[in-house]
Amino acid sequence: MTTLRLSPVTVSQKTSPSSFLRRRSPAVRISFGRGSSGRRTGGVFTVRMSAITADSYAYALSDLAQSTGTLETTMSDIEKIEKVFSDPAVISFFTNPTILPEKKKEVIEEIAKSSELQPQTANFLGVLLDSDRIDIIPEIVLEYERYYNRLTNTEVAVVSSVVRLESQDLAQIAQAVQGLTGAKNVRIKTLIDPSLVAGFTIRYGEGGSKVIDMSVKKQLEEIASNLELPTVSLPMQPI
């Protein structure tokens, strides 16, 4: 069984967030005021909330975070949200139509409090709840991370190993990835994978397209490949 977790190890250089994105989403802005009815208002959502995609939610949140200077804090909040909502039981609770909205709102408030989310992130969860879009939180997390990485020139590297690596080892890996990619920032995620036997692998690049394999499993596969002998045909001897 594999476990993915974010390592606290990062390698970064001071840089101002870039103002451009390669791909912009539909114009959806997030603002959280409350009208007399208690519903979030302000005319900031120009289309029906349930129709907005995960990409649009993520873009709106990243745009808000950039404008308020909270990109880093919001990324930290997103990681906390990812951990909570990675549990299928949590998603099932919020998508269960038999549970009263008031009860769901109470749980959202408890999650925000226990996770120490900043107010705008807590309100963002409230918007998702009001719009019946809690189910797309995993997709929103992925899309927000993509926007964050582009805005901050950050490379994400997934390090797989049999046992948890020490912080200094992860720091060296982060520095190596930074040297290979030229990224100003490197974030390390760790994955426990017993099938590697020993050693580790590093995946980075778009969609993990680049791999550095330092595992014993890889070495054993290469040894096995080198030991393969060609088929030998013996001539038939007359009886």
Layout of secondary structure:
Layout: E1 3-12, E2 33-34, E3 40-41, H1 54-67, H2 71-85, H3 88-95, H4 101-114, H5 119-130, H6 137-152, E4 154-161, H7 167-181, E5 185-192, E6 200-204, E7 210-213, H8 216-226
Subcellular location: Membrane
InterPro entries: ATP_synth_OSCP/delta_N_sf, ATPase_OSCP/d_CS, ATPase_OSCP/dsu
Family: Belongs to the ATPase delta chain family.
Structure characterization notes:
With 239 residues, the chain is α+β, with helices and mostly antiparallel strands. It has two domains: 47-149, Orthogonal Bundle (Peroxidase, domain 1), CATH 1.10.520; 153-226, no CATH class. The protein has helices at residues 54-67, 71-85, 88-95, 101-114, 119-130, 137-152, 167-181, 216-226, and strands at residues 3-12, 33-34, 40-41, 154-161, 185-192, 200-204, 210-213. It has a five-stranded mixed β-sheet with strand order 1-5-4-6-7. It has a two-stranded antiparallel sheet with strand order 2-3. β4 (154-161), α7 and β5 (185-192) form a beta-alpha-beta unit. α1 packs antiparallel against α2, α1 packs across α6 (137-152) and α2 (71-85) packs antiparallel against α6 (137-152). The longest helix is centred in the middle third of the chain and has 16 residues, at 137-152. It is globular. It starts with a strand and ends in a 13-residue tail after the last helix. 24% of the residues are buried. Residues 1-51 have low confidence and may be disordered.
